[in-house]
Structures are given as C-alpha cells and as structure tokens.
Design brief:
This protein is of the alpha+beta class. It folds into 2 domains: about 160 residues, no CATH class; about 100 residues, no CATH class. Helix content is about 20%, strand content about 25%. It has 5 helices and 17 strands. The strands form 5 sheets. The chain has an 8-stranded mixed β-sheet with strand order 2-1-5-6-11-12-4-3. It has a 3-stranded mixed β-sheet with strand order 13-15-14, covered by helices on one side. It has a two-stranded antiparallel sheet with strand order 7-10. Strand 8 and strand 9 form a beta hairpin. Helix 3 packs parallel to helix 5 and helix 4 packs across helix 5. The protein starts with a strand and ends in an 8-residue tail after the last strand.
C-alpha cells in the first residue's frame, strides 16, 4: 500500500511518522528521466537527466528504512504539533521511495482567495507544498538512488556529501608543489577557490594514474591549447600560476577537457564529460 511518511526532527525511537495512507503524492508519470549518469561533482546534468548511485543499500549513508521490507503498520500517525518539525518526506509508491527535503519556504500560511462555485477567502494553516519533481528516488529493485543535486539531499542521507570531495589544504599544498608548476606573485594555498579545490581533488586522482610519459605529453597538450592564457617556461618545463583562472585552465588540461572538432577544427573546452564506454 502506498504511504507518505515524514521524518520528524529530534531524537525519537522511530523518527518516521505516517502522514497519509493509501496515497501516491508524486506523479511518477510526469517524471521525464532520459538517462541516469554516474555521479561526478564536475558533471553538469542535462535537463532531463539524473545522477545515480548504484548498489545504494551497501553505502554507509543509506537509510535503514530502505534496507528492509516496508510495512506501513510500523509507523504511528503524525501529530499536529509535529507538522512544523518535519525534516523531509518519504513517499512509498509502487515499491519505490520518493524523497523531498522540507524547507521553511514550503510551508504555506497565507490568506488566499479560492475560486469554486463562488469566490471565498480561505486562511491556510499547516499546508505544505509538494514539489513536482522529488529531490531523490530510491528504486528498490535496482538498488539505485537517483537525484539532481547532491547538496540538496545531503541532509537526508547523512554522509553522502563525501562524494562531493573538496581537496584539503594538505592536498592543495601537495598539488601546488608539483614539479611542473611554479607559483608567481602572492598566489598560495589560501587563494585557491572552492570550485578549484573540487577540480583539484579530481585532478590529483587523474595524475596518480598517469605514467611519466603521459605527464610529459600532458604538459605539451595543455601548453598547445592554453598558449597566451597560461605561461609555460620551456627552460624549467613549468606552468606559471599567479591566479585562480590560470589554475583552473591547468586543472581542465589535466582532465583532458580541451579538444578540436574533427569538422571545422574548432578548439573547444568541454564544460563536463561523461564516459561512454
């Protein structure tokens, strides 16, 4: 049976309460999911795409609610005084779970004019807006979580933000100490922006898989695409980094984001990439 649960803030033996029984809150048919892409913090989703995490029940940030058979009889009804303390909704529909994070802006407490047979003023209390698209969907049979925005669901699945890795100061220092890089001016660890720290975490992983020959070829590749935007000292074989924009170009180069179109020979930068093997 379909059922809508609410996660109530605060410590309770059973944190979930039953909001509505025998009701499908989200319109599954309205969801247009063209494809699901393995989550990557540097990938920009198409409008009709979702990120996915496979084998979700095996992750430490998976909710215990999803690891067992769902039985609506295990949950008490939500009390009126708990309504304002909802953290998120979980709608069990057709064997799958649909999640929506609750924010203060979703509570409606306004006077409205309602048009029925006649117009009348209605004072709304304790109303909650349900979004058209849920923040996350757990497909039980496939054991996969799909979502649009990791930051949005990080308060639902505690610990999932570890996937949105940002390089630490120690990791940034290690990268800025690479032999092919020379800092100029006042640029230092403290000047590296948050977006570049995320790109840097990915680049460090890529560099770790490169052979010495690949690293040398990478330098030539970046220099050929960034000539005039990123200074390269032939004598020292170093890129000179004096600002965050230059560091970003180097990080894009390590990730091989620069390419030339086969027809027209246009030189381009890929804003995001997806493996198709």
């Amino acid at each position: 049976m379909d059922c809508l649960l609410g996660k109530v803030k605060g410590k309770r033996k059973n944190p979930y309460s039953k909001v509505i029984s025998n009701c499908a809150v989200f319109d599954v048919d309205a969801l247009n999911i063209a494809e699901c892409v393995e989550y990557s913090p540097d990938h920009n989703l198409d409008e009709d795409s979702f990120f996915k995490i496979d084998d979700f029940s095996e992750k430490h940030f998976c909710l215990s609610l999803l690891k067992k058979e769902f039985d609506s009889k295990e949950y008490d009804d939500l009390n009126k005084d708990q309504f304002g303390r909802l953290a998120f909704l979980v709608s069990f529909q057709g064997g799958d779970f649909y999640f929506q994070k609750i924010t203060p802006s979703l509570f409606v407490r306004k006077k409205m004019i309602v048009f029925g047979e006649v117009a009348e003023v209605e004072s709304s209390e304790n109303r909650l807006v349900v979004n058209q698209i849920p923040d996350a969907i757990y497909l039980k049979e496939r054991d996969v979580l799909i979502f649009k925005n990791l930051a949005t669901i990080s308060s639902i699945f505690r610990g999932i933000d570890e996937l949105y890795k940002e390089a630490t100061n120690e990791e940034v220092e290690e990268f800025l100490g690479q032999s092919f890089l020379e800092l100029k001016g006042d640029y230092s660890v403290n000047n590296v922006s948050k977006p570049n720290r995320k790109r840097l975490a990915l680049a460090m992983n890529t560099l770790g898989k490169m052979s010495d020959d690949d690293k040398r070829n990478m330098l030539s590749y970046v220099e050929s695409y960034c000539r005039g935007k990123l200074n390269f000292d032939d004598e020292s074989s170093c890129f000179e980094i004096s600002g965050d924009e230059e560091l970003k170009l180097l990080l894009y180069g390590i990730e091989q984001r620069f390419y030339t179109t086969p027809f027209g020979n246009e030189r381009r930068l890929a804003n995001s990439v997806q493996n198709i093997d």
